[in-house]
């Protein structure tokens, strides 16, 4: 399938099986050396493409890192968007079963008004029984290579309920952990 699309470079970051045994994959499609689009692909139970789409969020680089099915058969995708793979901002969005974006959120570069620039990536996501969404990832401030762990909770309409950051002592880089 990838060869048929004639794509420049592609990467699948995550795969999930839907309740009806079909599959959804997400990752990236590089249009050229400078532009990558977030890519979502839904297949039938035999792995044949049903639909796929590439999305952009007003930046030249974006990728999906994790994808889940929600209680209402929607999909929540997390990852990043940014001007390159270093200056990124965490991304979370939801699509319905017809591949229509219901909501999206890009994490702010300056969430606390301090003037510091926050670069972030959201790596994992899961849904709680109350339909709220919890995500984890990494965050760096002002380009500092020591990344902090990031944990966030959103309500069903993607309103941020809380955000926590953690810095392990003696560790130069930390990344999101799979919470399965």
Structural account:
- By secondary structure, the protein is an all-beta fold.
- Helix content is 2%, strand content 53%.
- It has one helix at 2-5, and strands spanning 9-17, 23-30, 36-43, 49-55, 61-69, 75-82, 88-95, 101-106, 118-127, 133-141, 148-154, 160-166.
- A four-stranded antiparallel sheet has the order 1-2-3-4, with no helix packed on it. A four-stranded antiparallel sheet has the order 5-6-7-8, with no helix packed on it. The chain has a four-stranded antiparallel sheet with strand order 9-10-11-12, with no helix packed on it.
- A hairpin with a 5-residue loop joins strand 6 and strand 7 (88-95).
- The two termini are 29 Å apart.
- The model is unreliable at 1-7 and 174-180 (pLDDT under 50).
**Global structural class:** mainly beta
Strand order of the largest sheet: 1-2-3-4
Helix % is under 10%
- Poorly predicted regions: 1-7, 174-180
Outline the secondary-structure elements.
Elements: H1 2-5, E1 9-17, E2 23-30, E3 36-43, E4 49-55, E5 61-69, E6 75-82, E7 88-95, E8 101-106, E9 118-127, E10 133-141, E11 148-154, E12 160-166
Brief summary of the model shown:
The protein has 180 residues and is mainly β. 2% of the residues lie in helices and 53% in strands. The strands form 3 sheets. Strands 1-2-3-4 form a 4-stranded antiparallel sheet, with no helix packed on it. A 4-stranded antiparallel sheet has the order 5-6-7-8, with no helix packed on it. A 4-stranded antiparallel sheet has the order 9-10-11-12, with no helix packed on it.
